[in-house]
Amino acid sequence: MIRKNLSASIVKKFIPARKSKSRKGDNGIVLVVGGSYIYHGAPILSSLAALRCGTDLVYTSVPKINVSATRASSPNLIVIPLVDQKLTRGAVNKLVGALPRNLDSATIGMGLAIPDKNALLLLVKSLLDRDVRLSLDASALIPEVLPLLAHTNVVVTPHTGEFKRLFGELPSNSKNERIKLVEKNAKKNGITVLLKGAIDVISNGTTTYLYEKKIPAMTVGGTGDVLSGLVAGMLSKNRNALESAAAATFINGLAGKAVQKRLGLHMTSTDLLDEIPVVMKPFDKIV
């Protein structure tokens, strides 16, 4: 097992250069599926984070009750309404039919109400059949989805409680035990696991990256939604799930550190969005 602490020199290798003659769509097309009556902001944060990390196009699919708020939040988002208030099989079938064929990646789950587990499974399978790379978070992290994910380009991004729901094991407070548990479940299920915490642990079961944040201001709601958007944005340009998850974690942390330095413990997740382009600038490459 290879274990490394994340650094700028490592992450620089994971963020592809942009071709100077590239056209719209060449640098990533992302789908975000999330939101509910209560949590309208989560998919907005994810979508804007994906755009901020250099993705060309983001399609944001939210329940119809959230559509007006989502459209009003930013003119940069392409909003696709779900035909139901929650993720149902009918809504999934309509959504899949409306998606562009050249979609690169998707992130699913932030703030999303999923009354029918089979609807989620249908969406995940439909996207994987199209060779879409996936980032799964929040309500999409259920054990029933695991058999679909083995040996595909998928990242799951649980916090401790979601990890227990997904894998049936609760990570301890011991750093070494957490690392071993992530590595075991990543290898067993053939996926990349990003366990969020004071130390983020990212592993595909063969290689593990660690990122110690020391950013207490990032306990504010929405920072995980920003991270999910960054993972999807990175996946849209880099097919390697481990590298994309590691890069997203590092950039999210750099943005958090910069905001905490400026605002102290008074950060909101939208502050992170404004900082992403600043901390990513040293990683920009044009060929």
Note down, in words, how this protein is organized.
With 287 residues, this protein is α/β, with parallel strands linked by helices. It has a single domain, classed as UDP-N-acetylmuramoyl-L-alanine:D-glutamate ligase. The chain contains 11 helices and 10 strands. It has helices at residues 8-12, 41-52, 67-73, 89-98, 117-129, 146-149, 160-167, 175-189, 223-235, 241-263, 269-280, and strands at 2-5, 29-33, 57-63, 78-82, 105-108, 133-136, 154-156, 192-195, 199-203, 207-212. A 10-stranded mixed sheet has the order 1-10-9-8-7-6-5-2-3-4, with helices on both faces. The chain is globular, with a radius of gyration of 17 Å. It starts with a strand and ends in a 7-residue tail after the last helix.
Per CATH, the class reads Alpha Beta
Order of helical and strand elements:
EHEHEHEHEHEHEHHEEEHHH
Mean pLDDT reading: 97
Ends distance: 34 Å
Strand order of the largest sheet: 1-10-9-8-7-6-5-2-3-4
List the helices and strands and how they pair.
Elements: E1 2-5, H1 8-12, E2 29-33, H2 41-52, E3 57-63, H3 67-73, E4 78-82, H4 89-98, E5 105-108, H5 117-129, E6 133-136, H6 146-149, E7 154-156, H7 160-167, H8 175-189, E8 192-195, E9 199-203, E10 207-212, H9 223-235, H10 241-263, H11 269-280
Helix pairs in contact: 2-9, 2-11, 4-5, 9-10, 10-11
